[in-house]
Amino acid sequence: MTKENEVPSQEPPAVQPAATLFAVVELGTTSVRMAVAQAWAGEEGIKPLENLQQALALGKDTFTLGYIATGTTEACVEALKRFQALLREYRVPPANVRAIATSAVREASNSEAFLDRIYIATGMAVDLIDEAEVNRFTYLAVHPVLQTVPGLRDGETLVVEVGGGSTELLHMKQGNVVSAQGYRLGSLRLRKMVDEERAPAPRQGRILRSHVDRGVGQIRYSLPENQNAVMVALGGEARFAASQLEREWDKKGLVKIQVPALAKLTTELIGLSADDIVERFHVSFQDAETLGPALLVYTRLAEALDLRAITVSGVTLRDGVLAEMATHGSWTDEFKQQILSSVHELGKQYHVDVNHAEHVAYLSQQLFKAMKDEHRLDPRHELLLTVAALLHEVGAYVSTRSHHKHSMYLIMNSDIFGLGARDLQIVALVARYHRRTSPKASHVEYSVLDRESRVVVSKMAAILRIADALDRGHVQTQRDIDVSIRKGQCVIRVKQAGDFTLEQQGLREKAEMFEQVYGLKVVLEEMSDEVALGKG
Amino acid sequence: MAKADSRFINRELSWLEFNQRVLDEALDTAVPLLERVKFLAITGSNLDEFFMVRVGSLELLTADGVTRPDPSGLSPSQQIDAVVARVRDMVATQYNLLSDLVAKLREAGIVYVSGSGLSPAQLVHAERVFDEEVRPVVSPMAVRSTDEFPALQNLGLNLAVRLQPKEGSTEQRYAVIPVGTVLPRFVSVPAEGGVVYAGIAIEELVRLLVDKLFPGETVVECVPFRITRNAAMSVEEEVTNDFLEEMMRLLAQRRTGGCIRLEVGAGATRMLVQFLRKGLAVPDHGIYEVPGLLNLATLFSLVSLNGFDKLRYETWEPQSSPQVDLRTSIFETLSRRNVLLCHPYDSYEPVLRFIEEAADDPGVLAIKQTLYRTSPNSRVIAALRRAAERGKYVTALVELKARFDEARNIEWARELERAGVQVIYGVKGLKTHSKVCLVVRREPGGIVRYMHFGTGNYNERTARLYSDVSLMTRDQDLGADASACFNAMTGYSEPPSFLKLSMAPMGVRDRLLERIRGEAKRAEAGEKAVIMAKMNSLVDEKLIEALYKASQAGVVIQLNVRGICCLKPGVKPYSSNISVVSIVDRYLEHSRVFYFLDVGKEEVFISSADWMPRNLDRRIELMVPVDDTESRQALIAILETYFKDTAKSRRLNGDGSYERIQPEPGRKPFSSQEALYIRSRKAVDKAEKSKPTVFEPHRPPTAV
Fold first, then answer.
1. Chain A interface includes B704 (CB < 8 A)
2. Residues of B with catalytic roles
């Protein structure tokens, strides 16, 4: 019997999943939640499978007590253990599970102890994410949805999420991020302020309104005049309002709700006790407490912007985290573009020499690519280096003397969309070390970094120095360079014939750090025509 | 039925009307004899439960002095009066019928012999049975005074014996003989003279030979009796919603267990009855003198006698629905289409296969399933065990509180646990009544979820007797909802907002109100508006009020409510557009199907929930939209079939009475159940015919 004629085996073919399962756990303000989803190799998009949530007073503890109480911690452990049972059912590999915590944990005085307890009890390492990361995930979640509606894709949008501790606002134009900012206006913070006044119940509504209006006033003030944005509301409270007001909403996509109707619902909710809300609307007690204040912020903001309707989206932060996990944490070109667009806005604000900045960025990228085997850094770092190159001279806005130091703190205190605190610190230090002293243990900002980050800063700053030196004249003459590593030398050949004196001098001043870091001498050569034409 | 000015029918009286409709089937001479006996038995067992639970509650409330009226305007004591009057009437009908049926059975060769009617040969046999089997297990208990009456088993059969006073005394002496539940109800005796079966009731046998139990004494009187205890407490969720607070307080005091009904064989002396009444502390209105066999429910044992098929309905074999090809994988079928089955006409086999295949399929990761009442030796249980043993994650949500089934449930639940199934014993404070099975399967294209949603329990036996609907699907939104539903029930997550499903106690009533009001709005706007709904009971005040409003707005409302219906149909001005029918036939109507016209949309739902407060507030129930066109149209056709019934359909009148719907003169009565059976058969025939008639030769395995 030949092979081809073999009777097929009765066994079903081994199932080889082309789909991968991911899960994200979020320790949020009023609850812990988990989303399980699947993504397919080589395909865009990620499909949700499960959404779980357990009410938990994390935000209430943090924003009223200042710390997370033991009872809450243990309830959190219990909830996570149940989530883990479901993860086992789906056989989600532990590497594909990401746990994050937002402001409710971040701002607790005992956040470290809390996270340690979670780790000990469940083995889950929870990442504390900061506002910038929240913005990044929000963007990743909301961007694909906005793309589906031409008006939102091509117009201006204000993506608003009212959390327990703060309100996050993402301002976008034609799909590009204009700014990302956080305001200390949160539902639980508001509730605490109202409670502290110990006013009788009827007056509480008025007090709440005055606090909200003050906060909304600040937001309004920080937004450009004459902006004509569509407001896109995210968050559990917004989703609640949408499902109350628009019964037919599929709870996934976008839905428009009328501001007067929202205002009416909000007034009704503010007039009810949390117990009544639980009874009437079947929500958890934790959610019941945040509904009124959060919806009031959305309402008043919409009214302040003269909007008749707002759009609510069913996406959540977890969708953003999942999207990032599905692309293995790498930033999409799309997303890099958003970061760079935000960086350009910042550069403009500080009057940087755009041509020089961009040329240095370009040269840095060339060097970074050529030096791949030497520095062994990933593409994320290339982007951070680019950002540092684009912003290395922002400090000159303050003063040209020691402008590298000014650059450092300006960057560190800026909101760059998509970059978290750690990323921002690396960028700031790379910019700082683009000239003068190389890193020293006495530099506080540098010494607080972990060893890995310190090395990263040195590697990138060394490259930035060379790139900067190559445009010493701020005239962007050498468009093309060719970098090769041979016999302990880093040979940079530039195409343009002529006078290198300025660059040679710059290199003499700036190559020292490079030589220390990489153990390579930098040699500048003129590129012959054959080489330039690819014949050599 | 109710105070004339009330807009509601009293639920207890409405229930009694339902029992009357069952009794009407027993009275119907067109129904085969043994089926009539069965219907009579059902009315008996129904009444037992009604007394324990419903009358039990009313007794507690009355004793507590509660006088507040229910929505029909009747106070608890007025309800008791009305119930008692109605029951007495019904009992009289039952026993008249019984003697009639006994005579008919005799003609058919099934003889129920009384003690005096035994032939000498039968007497010899009976005596032997008494000596060998009965005497060792019955023990008379002397009752010296009514204050120290022995504790007797609820619903058990007993004999009360009065003995001759001792010489020189006038003091009456009494004894009680509990016959218990160990002995069979009927003892077979040799059949003679053309008779096929002969038997004597156990209490008759004991009565006949009672002297043997009291050697040296003279038995003056020996009468069978049976007591019913107040069991309102055992079914907390059954508590009358109208008196929820009072009842919860009373239940907390555990003032239940008292005797609320005493049934005594007719002919007992007044003296004996009074003795029992005092000893058992039964209220006067709880005493029923019964002219015949006590405990009609035990007639079931006659119904299951072998043979006598001519005395039963002709068999309607469940059909193998052409939607499912049992030779291929059910998962493959479901990847092509949804499957909608109408049991018992469509066989339950695909549902069982679904669970069994899931247990054996290597790609299946998890099976989650609710189990309410299941049959012994259930294939469902076996499949779940097997799945767990194969390393799949199996979760079974077992409801132990299923009425009077608790002991049996515990047994197989333990069995599942031993096999590694994660067994969850219900949800605190809520009875899990939803019927859903979720299979999570890993396929080359990713995780796919398959579901079965039903209106009936996962019970192969009742699936042959109850009309229920099954929906099998891999709809993604329903999959997400089914997962969410289990996550909620297992405590993994709070109930989320569902995409398509509604879940009681959070959402079903609201969703229904929304739909009813939606139809009303459209009717007001001059659009066509129709609601059709089929359920077992309609009690919920909020829903009834919404239906009244919808009727006034001009919505045409057709209801098919098998059991209790507190809505008053056809009353001006509030319910002129509402009509209610009830169908009681060979199969127990059990499916819940709701339809809202919403022009252009035609929404249809199937559900595990009746429109009763207990279902909507104190149970976990599901309401599932059926939104694929084929299944939806099929369900609409099924709903409509019932409204065409002129054979077994009764119309509810505004005063709470029911009347049979007659066929138009000269037309044959139309039976909806028969029509549905024929529909299933035709579907099979059609599928057979459309099969390609190409022979498929068996080829040698080497062929290309």
1. yes
2. 433
Q: Which residues of A touch B363 (CB under 8 A)?
A: 12, 15
- Rounded mean pLDDT of chain A? 86
Identify which has the larger pLDDT, B26 or A184. Answer: B26
Search chain B and give the residue with CA nearest A279. Answer: B506
CA distance B614 to B429: 12
In terms of CA atoms, which chain B residue is nearest residue A82? B492
Question: What band does A379 get if pLDDT is binned at 50, 70 and 90?
Answer: confident
What b/e string do you get for B282-296 counting C-beta neighbours within 10 Å, with b at 16 or more? bbebbbbbbebbbbb
Residue A3 has pLDDT above 60, yes or no: no
Q: What is the mean pLDDT of residues A467-493?
A: 79
Say whether residue A49 is in contact with chain B using an 8 A CB cutoff: yes
Residues of A with CB below 8 A from B701's CB? 5, 7
Over residues A499-526, mean pLDDT: 84
Of B449, B492, B701, the CB nearest to A85: B492
Highest average pLDDT, of B7-21, B246-260, B375-389, comes from B7-21
Asked if B495's CB is within 8 angstroms of A50's CB, the reply is no
Out of A40, A54, A243, name the one closest to residue B446 (CB). A40
Q: With an 8 Å Cβ cutoff, are B701 and A5 in contact?
A: yes
Facing residue for B493 by CB, picked from A16, A52, A250: A52
Residue tagged 């007719």 (tokens)? B266
| CATH code of the domain covering residue B275 | 3.30.1840.10
Domains of chain A: 19-129 (3.30.420.40), 132-324 (3.30.420.150), 333-477 (1.10.3210.10)
Residue B211 has pLDDT above 60, yes or no: yes
B538 occurs within a structural domain: yes
Is the model more confident about B183 or about B288? B288
pLDDT band at A13 (very low <50, low <70, confident <90, very high): very low
CA distances from A446 to A398, A443, A456, A510, B348 (A): 22, 5, 11, 20, 72
If asked whether residues B561 and B666 sit together in one domain, one would say: yes
Looking at residue A2, its pLDDT comes to 40
Whether residues B612 and B627 share a domain: the answer is yes
d(C-alpha B586, C-alpha B569), whole Å: 26
Instruction: Determine, yes or no, domain membership for B292.
Output: yes
- Find the CATH number of the domain harbouring B458: 3.30.870.10
B282 and B384, same domain (yes or no): no
DSSP B668: P
Cα–Cα distance measured from residue A21 to residue A36, given in angstroms and rounded to the nearest whole number: 7
Mean pLDDT of chain B: 90
Query: Any chain B CB within 8 A of the CB of A85?
Result: yes
The reply to whether A50 touches chain B by the CB within 8 Å rule is yes
B420/B305 same-domain check: no
Own/partner pairs, A171-174, CB within 8 angstroms, 24+ separation: A171/A223, A171/A227, A171/A229, A172/A146
pLDDT for the residue A140: 87
Whether A89 sits inside 8 A of B366 (CB atoms) is yes
Among A32-46, A221-235, A321-335, B663-677, name the most confident range. Answer: B663-677
Strand (E) positions, B483-607?
502-504, 530-535, 556-561, 578-583, 588-589, 592-596, 603-607
Judged by a CB distance cut-off of 8 A, whether residue A16 touches chain B is yes
Instruction: Tell me which of B500, B527, B557 is where a domain ends.
Output: B500
- Domain count within chain B: 3
Q: Do B527 and B466 fall into the same domain?
A: no
CA distances from B437 to A346, B367, B452, B473 (A): 56, 7, 5, 11
Q: What's the ipTM?
A: 0.79
Q: What is the pLDDT confidence band of residue B244, given thresholds at 50, 70 and 90?
A: low
Chain B residues with CB under 8 Å of A50 CB are 480, 483-484, 487
On whether residue B257 sits in a domain, the answer given is yes
Amino acid letter, residue A67: Y
User: Final residue of a domain: which of B473, B500, B527?
Assistant: B500
Mean pLDDT of A274-293: 89
pTM of the complete model: 0.84
Structural domain for B429, as ranges: 330-500
B497 — contact with chain A (CB < 8 Å)?
A: yes
Residue B259 belongs to a domain: yes
